[in-house]
Known about the structure:
By secondary structure, this protein is of the alpha/beta class. The chain is built from six helices and 22 strands. The chain has helices spanning 13-24, 40-45, 62-73, 158-167, 187-194, 289-307; strands spanning 2-9, 29-33, 50-51, 60-61, 79-82, 86-92, 95-100, 105-113, 119-122, 136-137, 150-154, 173-177, 199-201, 204-210, 217-222, 227-231, 234-237, 241-244, 255-256, 259-261, 273-275, 280-281. Helix 1 packs parallel to helix 6 (289-307) and helix 4 (158-167) runs parallel beside helix 5 (187-194). The radius of gyration is 22 Å and the shape is elongated.
Amino acid sequence: MREVDVTVIGAGPAGLFAAYYAGFRGLSVAVIDALPEPGGQVTAMYPEKLILDVAGFPSIKGRDLVANLVAQAAPFNPRYLLGTLAEKLTYADERPVLGLAGGERLHCGAVVVTGGLGSFTPRPLPVAEHFVGAGIVYFVPQPAELAGRDVLIVGGGDSAFDWALTLHPLARSVTLVHRREKFRAHAATVSRVLRLPIRILVNAEVTRLLGDGTVTGAEITVRGGAAELLPVDTVVAALGFTADLGPLAEWGLRLDRRHIVVDSTMATNLPRVFAAGDITEYPGKVRLIATGFGEAATAVNNAAVAIDPGAHLFPGHSSDGT
């Protein structure tokens, strides 16, 4: 049986910043994540991709952002419980008690849920079921491994266009295929890709993959047109993800689809349980890492008052007295 002031569930960017901020407020903190290392989806999906919308960094690789956040929290000695699920939530003396996979219990002053979108599974490319791991990838953790290859990217969202930008300087060729004419990606990113010698096929689908065990080509069919065969070494299926809240869905949290509803203090409907980052929902919600940082600070400051009603909501600036 362990005791801690604040338990953060989710070790992505928002969770790591929440760990720092809890330490800054003089609170002991534990960080729980089902993944085996910190960083959440950034580490798992795009550690080498450049992130462009973090304040103060014109651009920063996902891996470097995570390393900086871990270093920022390190002076406050957060306890990392990685590769661990928080399965149950109960209360003892009006304080949250988390039941962890394996039977441990963690008594908390407050809980801050920063679990991104929960556990995530890539949406499959229907024609690729026989090639996964042999030329079909859903993440590109090491872009350098695709140097000199003919790469086909399938999708029209942010991930598809981000991979196009990342892989263009490395690959022999990059082709992007999207089944619609309009893209879901950020307009500025789309504009950058359109200025590069990257072939983009819209209203098109991958109808067949060629190869004996390993992908060697792809058949692309444009709506109303004939099929075209492309030489392809690697297919990046950037079709999005399905999210699963896992045990969190059974806690009694008020949900809006797969998101946790919070108020302006980042409080949920459960006592002493707060949330921050992509997992939250409220009117006007914007899902950005930058937004998650502010929400994490708001959640921790309000959690501090819930733990000790005599505490000040605003602790002062970190630069005060230095």
